[in-house]
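Hey team,

Filing this mostly as a record. A colleague (T.K.) asked me to run one chain through the structure pipeline before their review meeting, and I want the input and output archived in the tracker in case anyone asks later how it was produced. No errors, nothing strange. Just documentation.

Input sequence:
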Amino acid sequence: QVQLVESGGGLVQAGGSLRLSCAASGRPFSMYAMGWFRQAPGKEREFVAAISRSGVTTYYADSVKGRFSISRDNAKNTVYLQMNSLKPEDTAVYYCAARSLRAPSSNWGDYDDWGQGTQVTVSS
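Output structure:
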């Protein structure tokens, strides 16, 4: 297992920016493709972004393309989600997830470990 801890959430006005961080420990970070998911009250969990083990390949949900950017620093055992031009519909709890020795996926069930989540609230 790898332990994941998200941070960086908070309250921001529409049009603003936040950077989420997910710090990993317990196993070599470079073993894992990483993903970000989110869940709003009353909604199903949805895919946001994912990144390959090397950081070369990234994927984004259509709803966040051009606004969000996923990156990783394997030396720091951390994956980031830079969120720009935030909208009220981005309000959710954001979770990071790790997938061992596999390509990144948009499916929550493909991942092996998850963080506890961090709340992002975007006001109008």
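Quick notes for T.K.: The CA atoms of residues 17 and 84 lie 4 Å apart. The first strand starts at residue 3 and ends at 7.
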